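Narrative progress, year one. The postdoctoral researcher (J.K.) led the effort to move from monomer predictions toward full complexes, under supervision of the PI. The following entry was the first complex the group processed end to end, covering 698 residues in total.
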Amino acid sequence: MAQLELNSLEKRFGGGDEQVEAVSELSLSVIDGEFLVLVGPSGCGKSTTLNCVAGLESVTDGEIRIDGEVVNDKRPEERNIAMVFQSYALYPHMTAAQNMEFGLKMTTGLSKGERREKVESTAELLDISELLDKKPKSLSGGQKQRVALGRAIVRDPAVFLMDEPLSNLDASLRSTMRTEIQQLQDDLDVTTVYVTHDQTEAMTMADRIAILYDGELQQVGQPLECYYRPENRFVAEFIGEPAMNTLPVERRGDRLVGSGVDFPVPDRASGGLSRGQFTLGIRPEAISLVEPNTGAVTGAVEVVEPLGESSHVYVDIGDSTVTVKTEGPKSVDRGQRVGIDFPEDRVHLFDPDSGVAVARRASIPNERPSDRTALTD
Amino acid sequence: MATERTIEDSSLGGRIRRTVSRSTVGDIVDRVVSRPLFWLLPAVLFIAVFQLYPMFEVFRMSLTDASQLTQGESYVWLENYRQLFNSERFRSTLSVTAIYSASSIILQLALGLGLAVAIDYGVRRGLRGPLVTRVVVLSAWIIPGIIIGLVWKIMLLETNVGVLNNGLGQLGLDIVPFRSDPDMAVISVIIAGAWRGTAFSMIMFYAGLKRVPDQLYRAAKVDGAGPLARFRHVTLPQLKPVMFVVTILVTIYSLNSFDLIFALTDGGPGRATEVIALAMYKTGFDSYQMGLASATAVVLLVITLTITAVYFVVFDVSEEI
């Protein structure tokens, strides 16, 4: 159990003209027992950050502290961390038990019997006791991942680092393992940093998520905070499935006008908004289809994706396409003209250049409709 | 079935018959090419004509008194083998071959692995030009052994002209009898052989090392394994299949070494560097005793097969094959 702090962490690769900045000025603090998910698209620096924490990459600048102690120059095994890798990274020539035991053998003075005991109790926890004598080759993807988790857990580390541990599993197994990892982390109460590019994983598993883009921290907060109150356009579009709709608009008087869009400036935002260009953001699940010419915009249905309980409807509104998530099975047809209603309290406004949110929710709704109205700048 | 079709329209008859016969030929071709045996046939024929038959012929000849000096031959059965095992020359040849092969195998495996690990280590840390390095090293292997033998002969000449002796002379040292002293000659032959063979094992080991996933090393680092422990617990086990193949091939090459030694020392001084393949050649083409030479060849084959079988047990590669 430990607290992990990153202070102005920087990592650059290469030198001279070819230098690439993978992580810049990243400051984060993970409290004892917390499950923090680092999420972002490929190449955003999340795995590099994790490798720096693990000691597998050197740090260019800044510091990493585990329980207050700077560990920048410490070797991986001196940092009291354990890591789970994307492709499991199990030693193919060793049995599951030997894989789990290896770290203990290298780092502790435990006797063979003591090591075996630890391995067995961890295997029991993960329900893999019957796999201990098998080699990775004869294990399924899910079983391998359990052994890889076991290898990390058996070391009883201060911090768990997980680098996209579920991305090699099929969809159904992934959701099962998601719950299991969450439960394990809860039971073991070990500080965990989990890297993924999958926003669903991030949303469902994390105590807090840190969204990275281009090596920079975009926002860090509880999953719902990031969903309802994104600090910038990147976070707004990255978190949520399907992605938030964004439309370029211009403020004219008390209206926001864009190609096919004509919408009143949200009440709570009107005071702080200057005139000029904005990007209007609205989530597909926040909007509904209405009769043509009665909502904020009107357009023709391009594609309907029925998903059973809900459908995704793509509506062409001239220069852009708006995604609408509708309840129930297919309710509209391709080519049909429909109106789209934007509830005022769900509209986000972003600065078109910096992407910073200029109008977003004041708070996260907690199931009471009265809380759902606040908008602020 | 196409052949059972009743043809009523006589004007179409010819065309239909042609179609039917064409499809029958097509059927037969289809059936033949779908058999695995058809595709194995070229290889089977090649091996039978150029390898199995000569091998059988050598075995048969080893039971005869065939000679290049006389026409005809008669079966003497195991006489050649009896003569071989009773000859002092053959026993010395066997021991020279054993010393030469064992040293060559150890040197080539150790040096090849060392070089490959060094290059792999460098490449994983951003070293440039691994291809150039490999090509340079490999050039030692693609040069024919007879030329390498001659090159080493010039290097080891026992006058001031010899490259090595010239260098030693510059340092004020005496001339070393690299080729005329029996013990030195064996060492010279071993070193020249290793110099050549190391390139091959290095290339093989390097290919094997490249296949070791980086994540295993990272996992081992997190598990607290230092460089030596990583080599022992990750690299070596991962190299096992390659190690097996390289060991077998190097062993076969070493046991059958001929060209390089032929050019460098011709088995001399005396018979100090006469390995079994060289003895076989001399028996057959200098003494014209083809029967005895064939028996030597059969013994060499049995030795090679036995050692290979031992490797199969020692390496326990049943899982990999």
